Structure formats: C-alpha cells, structure tokens
C-alpha cells in the first residue's frame, strides 16, 4: 500500500506540475503549477535546498491538459487597397469568420529541477464573404478554404533554486491552406521560439524578462518579453506576458475565476492561388513580364482583442471557459511569395467587431490533487 500511495502521488504531481496547463497569462506554453516542493506553496518548513522556483503564483487557474475551443465573429465590413499596379481596390462584407483549435500538453519529464512539456495543436480558420464569387483574387482564394496550423512544441522549465528560474520554448508548425499531399512543402513551415529568465520573490509574486521570436505581430520578428505574475490578495491578481497579453484575474471561488484584459494575436498563412492566379501588371495594364505570375500569397494577420473571460468547473476533471470581447484588426495583408521582392500586394482592413468563444478543457481532478498534496 505504501508503494501504491507513492506511485499515486507521483502520477498526480506529474500531471499538475509538468505541464498540463496553458494559463491565461501565456497560452504559448504550459507553465508549471505549484507543488509541495515549489516556492509557490508557502512551504516555509522546507529548506532553500528543497525549494525550487517557477513562474506560477498562488491563485492561478487550473492546469490544462486537453483544450477544445471554438470562436466566432458576426458579419463585419472588409476593405482592400491594392499596393501594386494592375489590381483594383475592393470592399465587401465577411459573413463568417470562425476559428476552431484543439491543443494538448503532455509531461515528458518531471523533476524538481527540470520539467519538459510536449505540446501538440491543430487550428483552423475559415472565412465566408458576401456576393460570391467576389471576383477579387484574394477573397475568392480563401473562401471556405480552411486556413490551418498544425504544430508541435517543446517547453523546458528549469528552476535553478528557491528564487531563480528560466524557461525556453521552441515550436514548429505548418501554416496555410495546405492539403495532405502538400505537407512536405517547405513554404508552409514556420518556426518560433522564446526564452525568459525570472525571479520568484514570494509565493504570490514571480517575474522575468526575455524575448520572443515569432509571428505574434504578423511578420516574423524578435521582440522583448516581460512575465509578471502577481497575486495581491485572496481575490485579485494579474498575469502578463507583455506586450503580447495582460490579464487581470478575479478569484470568485475555488471553482470560478474571471479575467479581463487584452491579447495581441498574430497569424501567418501561405495561400495557394489555385482558384484565381494573380498576374502583376504595368501602369498601362499590360502584364509585367519581369514578375512571375503569383502562385502563392503570404497572409499576415494581426489583431488586438479586448476580452472578458469566465472559467468554471463543471466536473472534477472538466472546466468550461466562456469568453467575449471586441476584436480590433490591425492588419490583414497579402505579400508576394513567388518573386524575390516579397512586396506587399494587397492591404486589407477588417472593421472592428465583437466576438465570442466557448472552450472546454480537462484538468487533474481536484480531489486527486488534494490527496497528492498538490495545491491548485
């Protein structure tokens, strides 16, 4: 029985610590939840050699293992401005913009001084436009097409001692309107990474600085990142990975949490122009023979969401997340991926619009965590 109890404790601790989580402050990787050996647990009876810091603080939401999310926006206006000769401007309405995402996190390695988490995800975005066909090259090529992103990532959380920690994440994905026969094409490949070094000042306060390298702002770029997790009292806290997202947290109860804040989301897709190839033209309307006919476009989409979110426990292992807010579209631009100049071809703007999403996610059951000595 003693061996069974030890095994049981190890399994539950692994589930909750090693990464079945994607907290609101940084959904790009799962953070370690506090355990009896972490400095987030108020374990004042532990010596410094026994304590290991991590980015989490008391009061953060439950760990997430499997996440299914659906997001939808109502009808909104779209305006496109040509950036090269031979194309026209265009205005229409998007009657549908929806996203489905499925994500899972698996603990691959769990030690007090090293935690490794593997993540897999699939996301799909769809558009529908009014007055089909639009006779506009960009919109006819993404109508009901399914802009997909299939990704795998690995995150490493390395507690150094009772105060210092660092983490690193690398992610590879295929992004675009690819089919199963096109999965080997390098054009669809994407890579992103981040690294952060942090300090655990108390069980209620952890922060860090580092960088992110990816498509959060539409195009591939590197920018600074600041992690700031702080719980002020039994009700209020803040979780941030600035500048990408900042969230204020309110703990209504042990099984109900509210969030308010903003997120910056970037998407980058390769679109195959099979339905309406696009030919670059001269000022007089004749074909520009110095440029090849465009076979693909690179879509760079950037949006800012101001959001309200509610997470609620439905069952001991199942939670619901309901979110609503306002989406401000910063850019939806198409770039030449066929010629070497990578010139912007079309500059599009979406009108601001409300959005809503519903999410279900699986967590380690609360009673099992309590038996294992893990505090959520």
TrEMBL record:
Polar residues bias: start-end ranges: 42-54
Region feature Disordered, mapped onto this chain: 37-57
Keyword Signal: yes
Alphabetical UniProt keywords: Signal
Domain DUF6268 residues, every copy: 178-272
InterPro entries: DUF6268
Keyword DNA-binding belongs to the record: no
Signal peptide: 1-26
Protein name: DUF6268 domain-containing protein
Record organism: Hymenobacter glaciei
């Amino acid at each position: 029985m003693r061996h069974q109890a030890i095994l049981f404790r190890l399994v539950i601790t692994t589930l909750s610590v090693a990464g079945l989580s994607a907290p609101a402050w940084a959904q790009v990787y799962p953070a370690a939840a506090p355990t009896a050996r972490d400095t987030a647990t108020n374990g004042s009876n532990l010596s410094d050699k026994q304590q290991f810091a991590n980015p989490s603080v008391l009061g953060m939401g439950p760990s997430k293992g499997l996440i299914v999310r659906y997001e939808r926006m109502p009808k909104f206006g779209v305006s496109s401005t040509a950036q090269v000769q031979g194309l026209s401007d265009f205005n229409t309405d998007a009657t549908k913009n929806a996203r489905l995402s499925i994500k899972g996190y698996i603990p691959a390695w769990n030690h007090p001084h090293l935690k490794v988490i593997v993540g897999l995800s699939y996301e799909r975005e769809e558009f529908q436009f009014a007055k089909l066909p639009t006779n506009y090259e960009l919109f006819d090529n993404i109508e009901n097409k399914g802009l997909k992103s299939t990704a795998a990532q690995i995150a490493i959380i390395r507690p150094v001692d009772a105060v210092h920690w660092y983490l690193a994440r690398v992610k590879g994905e295929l992004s675009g309107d690819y089919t199963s026969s096109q999965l080997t094409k390098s054009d669809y490949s994407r890579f992103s990474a981040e690294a952060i070094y942090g300090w655990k000042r108390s069980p209620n306060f952890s922060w860090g600085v580092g960088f992110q390298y990816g498509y959060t702002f539409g195009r591939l770029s590197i920018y600074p990142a600041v992690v700031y997790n702080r719980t002020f009292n039994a009700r209020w806290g803040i979780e941030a990975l600035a500048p990408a997202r900042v969230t204020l947290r309110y703990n209504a109860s042990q099984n109900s949490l509210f969030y308010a804040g903003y997120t910056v989301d970037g998407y980058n897709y390769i679109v195959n122009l099979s339905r309406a190839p696009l030919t670059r033209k001269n000022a007089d309307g004749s074909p520009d023979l110095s440029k090849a006919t465009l076979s693909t476009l690179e879509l760079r989409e950037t949006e800012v969401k101001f959001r309200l979110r509610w997470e609620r426990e439905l069952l001991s292992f199942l939670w619901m997340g309901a979110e609503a807010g306002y989406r401000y579209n910063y850019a939806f631009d198409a770039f030449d991926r066929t010629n070497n100049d990578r010139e912007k071809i079309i500059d599009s703007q979406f009108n601001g619009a409300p959005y809503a999403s519903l999410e279900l996610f699986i967590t380690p059951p609360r009673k099992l965590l309590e038996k294992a000595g893990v505090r959520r």
